[in-house]
Design goal:
The chain is an all-beta fold and 348 residues long. The protein has no helices and 28 strands. The chain has strands at 2-9, 14-21, 26-33, 39-45, 50-55, 61-67, 73-80, 87-90, 94-99, 104-109, 123-125, 132-137, 143-148, 153-159, 167-174, 182-187, 193-198, 203-209, 216-223, 251-257, 262-267, 272-277, 283-289, 296-299, 305-309, 315-321, 327-334, 339-347. The strands form 7 sheets. A 4-stranded antiparallel β-sheet has the order 3-2-1-28, with no helix packed on it. A hairpin with a 4-residue loop joins β13 and β14.
Length: 348
């Protein structure tokens, strides 16, 4: 079994391909794809072995690659996106695109070869909320959820039927208090829970999901900020927005580890990686200082390896997390500037 890790290095305009040794918890660089300026987010289609890269270029682009033998990336083309992409998620026969700066959510259909196509219309919702930051689909395929950071809301959609659009908006769920800024989200494998990390208040908040209606009910929360961190409530990073305080709460990522038993989060002002026991009464198990400004983090397919990238450090750290939340650093490597996103392929 082989595992490949793809790292989007935004400042370099490259995608690095690494072999991941799951036993040792180490990365080995195999190749670097250049000419991917502005690459900032990735999504992977495991069935077709295709990598999608969202690019923050003057005209937003989606670059598409096929993964061939040995993890090599074969460029299939660059395609225009309806708006900028802060987050991509693969959705069976389409790519979901969340736009922070354009406050929009789109569903871009792909053909049988996995390439964006025009035979089916692109769905776009530009009226649901401000600063859409992340999007995810439930495993049962019934619902799509997205975070609207500037509106303090979790957006919800069901699948369209008949002449309806591909996605039909459902009532949103407020994330309180105002100014929390829900940023990224994860959905439990059984679909019973949707959990967000809030950028400006530094909380992990979990919601119970009604599988029939898609409605969310707040179930529990925990802070990833301690008094010793000496942080104040953060602000949304938008043009013309409020001044950024000297030490703002600036949470970034949330991922699931250990088959969903753990959540891992990052906070950028303190450069901290935190491990949380998942559930309706979550609790912090451990935290360590990591890469400078850790915007990007991901959990490898093994479920126990965490990769963390630093916006300003130009490096990636690898950790093994135990069932009890103990973190063991297994490697640190230098990468291209601003390793902003990770994706994985496991080949049996």
């Amino acid at each position: 079994m082989s595992t490949y890790s793809f790292i989007a290095c935004r400042a370099e305009g490259t995608i690095e391909v690494h072999a991941l040794d799951a036993d040792r918890g180490t990365l080995r660089r195999l190749s670097v794809v250049e000419g991917v300026e502005g690459v900032s987010t990735l999504a992977f289609d495991h069935e077709r072995a295709m990598l999608y890269a969202g690019r923050a270029t003057p005209e937003p682009l989606l670059s598409v690659f096929t993964v061939v033998a040995g993890g090599r990336l074969e460029h299939r083309g660059d395609f225009a996106l309806p708006h900028s992409a802060a987050f991509l998620a693969f959705d069976g026969d389409a790519v979901l695109v969340a736009s922070y700066h354009d406050s929009a959510l789109s569903r871009v259909p792909v053909d049988a070869d996995g390439l964006p196509c025009t035979e089916r219309p692109t769905f776009t919702d530009a009226d649901a909320g401000r600063n859409i930051h992340a999007v995810a689909t439930t495993r049962d395929g019934r619902h799509v959820y997205a975070t609207a950071l500037g509106s303090d809301a979790i957006l919800a959609y069901r699948r369209g039927a008949g002449d309806e659009p591909a996605l039909v908006r459902l009532p949103a769920t407020a994330v309180e208090p105002a100014g929390s800024g829900p940023r990224h989200l994860v959905i439990s494998s059984d679909g019973s829970r949707v959990t967000v990390v809030t950028e400006m208040s530094g909380e992990v908040i979990t919601f119970a999901r009604d599988a029939e209606t898609g409605a969310l009910t707040r179930a529990g929360e925990v802070s990833i900020v301690t008094p010793d961190d000496d942080l104040v409530t953060g602000v949304a990073r938008v043009a013309g927005g409020a001044a950024v305080p000297e030490r703002p709460i600036w949470a970034a990522e949330i991922r699931q580890a250990r088959s969903g038993a753990l959540w891992v989060t990052t906070e950028r002002t303190t450069s901290k990686l935190t491990v949380i026991e998942a559930g309706d009464t979550p609790r912090v198990l451990n935290s360590v200082r990591t890469e400078e400004r850790p915007r990007a983090a991901a959990v490898a397919p093994s479920g126990d390896l965490i990769l963390v990238g630093g916006e300003t450090s130009g490096g990636v750290s690898v950790y093994r997390v135990s069932e009890t939340g103990v973190l063991e650093a297994t490697q640190r490597i230098e990468t291209g500037g601003n390793p902003a996103w990770f994706a994985f392929q496991r080949v049996d």
